[in-house]
Amino acid sequence: MEPTATAQYVPGDFLPIVIQFAAALGFVVFAMVVTHLIGPKRHSKVKDASWECGIESKGDARAPISIKYFLIAILFVLFDVEVIFLYPWAVNFKYLGMDGFVWMLVFMGLLLTGFFYVLKKGVLKWE
């Protein structure tokens, strides 16, 4: 079924979305208030100490981390999000026809250009 150009939306059409958003927000606020009210209130040096996986932490939490880690993480997210755009295109492949195919080739070309630029700059080389 194709959408028509004469489809008009009224504010009432969005009421279920607003209700769901309000319910989700209400649940979050309710959970935060209840856990604050019934949670333990006794503090001590041992209870407030930082633990990671049952191992006592050592050193400063502000230890420098290589920028390479963050660059690879950002690039992973960037290229992962780009792949998400392939799914709607694949679903609507027949409907989009040759024009959609050409635009996807342009999109993939730009994506590969960015990827080859990253490779040329040596961002993915971990030393």
List keywords for this structure.
single chain, 127 residues, mainly alpha, Methane Monooxygenase Hydroxylase, Chain G, domain 1, two-stranded antiparallel sheet
Provide a descriptive summary of the structure in words.
The chain is mainly α. It has a domain at 66-127: Up-down Bundle (Methane Monooxygenase Hydroxylase, Chain G, domain 1), CATH 1.20.58.1610. The protein has four helices and two strands. The protein has a two-stranded antiparallel ribbon. A hairpin with a 2-residue loop joins strand 1 (51-52) and strand 2 (55-56). It is flat. The N and C termini lie far apart (54 Å). The model has no long low-confidence stretch (mean pLDDT 85).
Termini Cα gap = 54 Å
Helix/strand/pairing category: mainly alpha
Q: Calculate the mean pLDDT score and round it.
A: 85
Contiguous uncertain segments of 5+ residues? none
> Architecture of the domain at 66-127 in CATH?
Up-down Bundle
Write down the Rg.
25 Å
Strand-residue fraction? under 5%
CATH top level of the domain at 66-127 is Mainly Alpha
Q: How much helix is in the residues?
A: 55-70%
Number of helices: 4
Largest sheet: 2 strands, antiparallel
Strand adjacency order, main sheet? 1-2
Subunit structure: NDH-1 is composed of 14 different subunits. Subunits NuoA, H, J, K, L, M, N constitute the membrane sector of the complex.
Catalytic activity: a quinone + NADH + 5 H(+)(in) = a quinol + NAD(+) + 4 H(+)(out)
Protein name: NADH-quinone oxidoreductase subunit A
Keywords: Cell membrane, Membrane, NAD, Quinone, Translocase, Transmembrane, Transmembrane helix, Transport
